[in-house]
Amino acid sequence: MKKPFLSLVVLIGMPGVVHAQSNVTLYGIIDSGLNYTNNVQTARTATGLTGGRQIAMIEGGSAGLQGSRWGLKGTEDLGGGVKALFLLESGFYSNNGVLNQGGAMFGRQAYVGLSNAIGTVTLGRQYDPVVDMYGPFLAAPQWGGYMTSHPGDLDNALNSRRINNSIKFRSANYHGLTVEAMMNLGGTAGSFSNNWIWGAGAGYSNGLFSIGAGYLNIRNPNTSFFGANPNAGPATSNNLGSFGSATSPQSNPVFAGYASANRLEIAGVGAGVTLGSLNVNLAYSNTRFENLGSSSGPNTLHYKGAAAFNNAEINAKYQITPSLLAGVAFDYTRNGGAGGKGGANYNLFSAGLDYFLSKRTDVYTVAVYEKASGTDSLGQGAVAQITGLTPSTTDKQVSWRVGIRHKF
């Protein structure tokens, strides 16, 4: 164990000239489809929210199973069991060709690193431990896509946001066990903790039973986390969402009012069991916007204290035939409010079918219904918000999607 560890440390700190085998792979996904949604906001006026029904072609990264992307990945064998590796992954909207992730060229992932028998160390823009260890137990990454993820993807389990400037270690698989740790130092001169992000996670699987957990601690989330894309604004802007206007709808009303949080903590744990063609999962997460009222972001509603979300999901999928997969899920989210103000509940019901025409091409359909109640983060009667779609004008929202996905 000592020799592989020393070789990894030496190669990180003192690069040399090595002649070795290397390979580079081009890959990608295109996901697009049509959505019918019964209620979509168009604006917020003095008389209330306005909107109507919508039929639209929507990109996979907003409502489909996966976001459209293309990428390059490669490895180089450096000898002695050590490899160099890299990945560059660009997200885009297939319906109009525009870059996703706020216009970043490689907004999904961009990293370089080294690996050996102990594990892998990578540096760059990367997924966090909550996504890697907790996310796989949810319906969204398995069969449901963005619409079935938790309201506004509040716990980031479906990877709506990435971590810039991060250092990440992921261990090799030891008899089913994998551990992971990540850190972003923030880089602010004179303030070590400003914009600092760190997290850790672990997962175990023996084929029949699996369990995973992840934790993320984020300082100044309005800029360091929600502001990690090129189109984000400074601390005076609300990067979490929008209150809407006479010419534009609201966005992320589930948590947009909490932009002034000085710290965001996310913890999630999931477990699943596979019995033949049936797989069933349970998952729980806690998301806390803490120290509201700080200078990290605007505080239009003058919140203080903390706002905590508790989320619980149960989902199941069944491989009916080698080509046909069916899934159902129920998710419950409770926001306890902030500083004694408000508090909302969200109930999300999802169902889907996925038919594989080949190993690389499938057609699918997903239907989602959400019911909200209480008072949301914008201080209004809670409106339904199916992830990836524009919020409803009421406490209910239904969307049905038919799509196609191709992998290359």
Offer a concise description of the structure:
The chain is mainly beta and 408 residues long. It has five helices and 17 strands.
Offer a few descriptive terms.
mainly beta; Porin; 5 helices; 17 strands; 51% strand; globular; disordered N terminus
**Helix residue percentage:** under 10%
SSE pattern: HEEHEEEEHHEEEEHEEEEEEE
Question: In the residues, how many domains can be counted?
Answer: 1
Give the N-to-C terminal Cα separation: 38 Å
Radius of gyration: 21 Å
For the record, the CATH class is Mainly Beta
Low-confidence stretches: 1-18
Helix and strand composition category: mainly beta
User: What's the CATH topology label?
Assistant: Porin
CATH architecture descriptor name: Beta Barrel
How would you describe the overall organization of this protein?
The protein is mainly β. The chain has a single domain, classed as Porin (Beta Barrel). Helix content is 8%, strand content 51%. The chain has helices at residues 2-13, 60-63, 129-134, 139-144, 221-224; strands at residues 22-45, 48-59, 69-79, 82-91, 109-115, 119-126, 163-171, 177-184, 197-205, 209-219, 263-275, 278-292, 305-321, 324-338, 343-356, 361-375, 396-407. The protein has a 16-stranded antiparallel beta barrel with strand order 1-3-4-5-6-7-8-9-10-11-12-13-14-15-16-17. The model is unreliable at 1-18 (pLDDT under 50).
